[in-house]
Design brief:
Layout (H helix, E strand, L loop, with lengths): L2 H4 L8 H10 L1 E5 L4 E3 L8 E6 L2 E6 L5 E7 L4 E2 L15 E4 L3 E6 L1 H10 L1 H27 L2 H16 L3 E2 L3 H8 L3 H13 L3 E4 L2 E4 L2 H9 L1
Antiparallel strand pairs: 1-8, 2-7, 3-6, 3-8, 4-5, 4-7, 9-11, 10-11
Length: 219
């Protein structure tokens, strides 16, 4: 792992700022399922993904999850360092969705870099704007799109991420991503199977008609 290659605006930092990052950043290996941050006052530091995949989600009072966004290689997670931006309060949980390697940058170090470097400040603002857009898109999906369209879109997105038409996902896992009850997911997947869109197995969903799912998603 090379911090100089992973940090997005490394080339725009001064030698002193680069040295500060090298001395403070710690490489962490996060096995699948590791909960890194639970939001609120949990300020573990800023995460910069080297490899693997993280998932950020919110939890309802009833214990139902819904995925806000995912992070892969070279993505940066600001919400694990929420204390850097006191005006933004999100109860977002961040966990490793796959075995992940990531840089952990102490919140106070990143905050000082934001104050010293216009490049870091601008990049941070861009990331925040992008995350806000993702959240707004999610709200729009939940409010205006029917569940069958959301499920079709999720299956296609997951297939693209995994590079496979065979998805090893439980119905409960899908429900956690989409903020839906497992029973609702099961009913809709069975309907998809009856329409020839997917084939279902134990812990396995095989996309049988990607074009059909795309047509349903885009209706």
């Amino acid at each position: 792992m090379d911090l100089a290659q992973d940090f997005p605006v490394w080339g725009q930092l001064t030698p002193g700022q680069q040295q500060k990052l090298r001395e403070s950043a710690v490489c962490r290996r996060l096995p699948k399922g590791t909960v890194i941050s639970r939001g609120g006052d949990d300020c573990v530091g800023l995460l910069l993904v080297h490899s693997g995949q993280l998932r950020a989600y919110i939890l309802s009072e009833q214990g139902r999850e819904i995925t806000i966004y995912r992070l892969s290689a070279l993505d940066i997670c600001l919400f694990s360092a929420a204390c850097v931006m006191r005006s933004i309060q999100f109860e977002i949980t961040v966990e490793a969705e796959k075995d992940t390697e990531a840089w952990m940058i102490p919140a106070n170090v990143y905050k000082s870099l934001m104050e010293e470097s216009l490049a870091v400040a601008n990049y941070t603002n861009e990331v925040m704007a992008s995350r806000f857009s993702e959240v707004m898109w999610l709200i729009e999906q939940i409010m205006w799109k029917s569940f069958d369209k959301r499920l079709a879109g999720f299956l296609l997105e997951e297939s693209a991420l995994e590079g496979s038409m065979q998805l090893h996902l439980t119905h409960e896992t899908i429900g956690n991503h989409l903020g839906a009850a497992r029973e609702m997911v099961t009913r809709m997947l069975r309907y998809f199977q009856s329409e020839g869109l997917v084939r279902l197995g134990r812990g396995l969903i095989e996309i049988a008609d990607a074009a059909g799912l795309e047509k349903l998603r885009d209706q």
